Amino acid sequence: MQQYPVRWNAIAALVALGGTVTVTQAEEAVPLPAADVVVVSATRIGHTVFDMPASIDVIDATRIQQSQQRVNASEALAAVPGLVAQNRQNYAQDLQISSRGFGARSTFGVRGVRLIADGIPASMPDGQGQAATFNLDMAERIEVLRGPFSAIYGNHSGGVIQLFTRDGEGAPTIEASYSAGSYGSRKADVNAQGKQGDVGYVLDASRFETDGYRAHSAATRDQAFAKLTLTPMQDAKLTIVANGLRQKDTQDPLGVTWATYQRDPRAGETDATDTQTPRRTLADRYDTRKSIDHQQIGANWEQQFGDDRLRVMVYGGNRQVIQYQSFSRAFQAPATHSGGVIDFDRDFYGADVNWTHVSQLAGGKLSTTFGLEYGRSDDDRKGYENFIGTQFGVKGALRRDEQDVVSNLDPYLQAEWQSGAWMLSAGVRRSTVKVSVDDRFVSNGNDSGNLEFSHTTPVLGVLYRVSPKVNVYASAARGFETPTLNELFYASAGGFNFNLKPAESTHLETGIKTRLDERTRLNAAIFQVRTSDEVVVDSSGGGRTSYRNASKTLRRGLEVSLESSWRYGLSTRVALTALRATYDQGFGAVPQGSRLPGVPKANAYAELAWKDSADRFGAALEGIATSKIYADDANADQAAPGYGILNARMNASQQWNGWRFRQFARLNNLLGKNYIGSVIVGDTNKRYYEAAPQRNWLLGVSAAYQF
What we know:
The protein has 707 residues and is mainly β. It has 6 helices and 37 strands. The strands form 7 sheets. The protein has a 22-stranded antiparallel β-barrel. Strands 3-8-9-6-7 form a 5-stranded mixed sheet. A hairpin with a 5-residue loop joins strand 13 and strand 14. It is globular, with a radius of gyration of 25 Å. It starts with 7 loop residues before the first helix and ends with a strand.
């Protein structure tokens, strides 16, 4: 099998792809559509991206929805510098998302990065979130905040990803779409939207099915979404959002060893303990799978009082999960085993209330936000044997029974002062996270207990307008990241891990934002993050992972994004990231200077796109490259090699009376390379590697009618 290590000249080639076009007649080019998008991340006061003292990118609806199946946010997030969003080809474990290296160790879901949808948290109080709950079909934009200002959102360190869905507007519209592609991938979606009087509505339902690229990776996902926007009184807006996600028996292909990947990237790992001939894979023998049933509803009330504003947000929901893992008590000491089947029923709810007051101070405008956020999740959690007699992959004897409660209570204060060319922003948040365990299965020891983590996270930023086209800024913050409930569940010696401490970090960033002209925008930032007590993988196998606190880590990096529009409908986009993330102090068998696992040293995205003047046809060539990724702390095992791939997409649209028709085609990995798309950090059995698809295709059509 060929390997494809990435070299700096490969990244340079991607830059060339994004910047080879030149123009001499500026008036024939089209201005960038997202240049003046107003965002609310970072300061909570609406500003354009250009006027924010922070690294923040906006992904608009076109990029999210056109020429995509709208199942995985990773496709749209690929164009954001500083962010690594990988589709693991494993719908049982969700996407792998990291921001400036935070979150790369997560074995499932998203941690280290706060997820928010329409102002309502998609992350639990412990910091764990699920990107699968995002409804991409109705997305209007995604804001991606990185660096110091993410500390104002509390318990996490890497960043904030906020999804905003569209409001219902205009005459009633109904739309149906269907897409299909390689490996039995198919999705059907139907939605309706409109506005009657003061009530806007959006409704959406979809089903996604796939046979999976990797062995034992088939999945079915049903999603539903509803949004109402009302104006019950003058200067007031009420938004109600409900969503549901259901995945029944989603197969988990697990990771594989380097030898298995080289033999067949799509194959599963063989179970050495299996007595059958030929031996079954671990995934097949244990029938590793997960079922998810998730519902959530929330409401946002916004009331203007002149220049002042009151916001009240409340939400609640339920999440039920049952997961079958690939290990058994037959191979573990009974005292440390809590079952190979995880079964929990979680109720969660929370609220956020804040008031923004605007006044004059020292010849400038002062905007001050006072707020209080509360969240709570309550798990009824059980664990069972995953065998009965000689049959594996079935629910057996009870091995765990407990109630797990996590809550957070966070008061916060933010202030922003503007005068002339200067903008000063400051904030402080006091986060208190409490964890309570009530163990009802005490035959293997009583794991009941409580934990409390508290930390104050200040942030400070300054922006100076050098000219109407150039802004420079600097920011700093202290952050912290508590262990998630999943990271506390297992200690290496068995039982609940009450010894884990939160990681604390210091963030520094400086950057420049320039509008070279109305068609070209360049953003660049350099940053440094020092972290103590980093939470790292202690051992991992069969879907179960235990964690420990490591020593100090150091992250230093550079992010650059360049967007341009040219004549003849051409546009380019480039996103480059260079990140040196290392252990600044050795621990155990890990020497100082070792690279943080799961974090590439460099990655790049480049795009050359075209659309006609009437926006009826479009096409683009995309390039993605990343350097090698280590999967273990000591960097002793085989790293996942770097790679570079090319994708192509085309789209078309037509109008006829009240109808709008759209079609798209996408061809990914044009050169058909074999490469590892993601790694499972710290797997004890060295089953680190998760292969990405070779050349694959996707076709989609939609029809919408406006009454």
